[in-house]
Amino acid sequence: MAVIEQLIRAEDDGSISFGNYKLPEKKKVENFEHNGDLLKVKTFKDITKLESNENFVYESVPGTAVHGFKETDKGVEFDVEGDNDAQITLGLLENTEYSVFVNGSSIGKMSTNLGGKLNLSVELASEGKANVRVEM
To answer: How far apart are the first and last CA of the chain?
Structure first.
């Protein structure tokens, strides 16, 4: 895996990849059309953020690169890469319980808040990448 040089791209399987945690200054791409949605990504070494139709989807602190990001009616799955451990916030359904898996191992059940946000930490410093799956 590697950073996304063009900041966001559509993949052949219908997923998207986005983010560049190597950038020293914030860059963004707005109005990226994908499956009828308008996506906006902001990324650099300190933060990576994705919005769809002006709604919050993903944020990581510090910045990350996300590969194969797929949303379904049951949750989301993606591979994430970075130089440091990351705090990730996902925009999902509000007041809903999800099972969260990192690299195939369950890290437990987590519930979203009234705004539909779910927070999790991913250890990237040692391996540099992880697979995340969040499902109802």
So the answer is: 28
